[in-house]
Amino acid sequence: MSALYQNTGMTPGILAVRYTNAGIEDSNGPSVEHFVGLPKEWITIEGEIGPKSGRGIGQVQKPESVVLEGLTLSLADRERFAKWLKLGRFHIWGWIIYRDAFADTPPRLTEFCTRMTGGNGGIGDKFVADITACPEHNCPDRHCRDYAQMMQLMTK
Description:
By secondary structure, the protein is of the alpha+beta class. It contains 4 helices and 8 strands.
């Protein structure tokens, strides 16, 4: 899996720190500890993210056993896998904290969380997954309930 952080604004973002992960969680999404991750897993983005541009996060790789909870993608398991997808347990989440290029601006935060809620289980020519936003962690800045807690990460 791979994704892109996109700066849709008119101001460059600088001093960015980000974290992205994926895994099996309950249908509400990752716990606070899983969502934040460990400081050693955070990635500092060198330079700036220019206005109207993006930066790839690279690939998030997980062993098949983590993603599929013991199922395999053999032909015999594809129907079981399609049913498993509907449970909505596989999530992809992350966050980025950055500053605008202007002096004395507050740190900015963007959070995202999605979960697979269905799909074809790899039956047919292509794997298709239905993706839905998690109930929490899809927000910018002070609209995030954990904004204050996430801003404390900038001091670590």
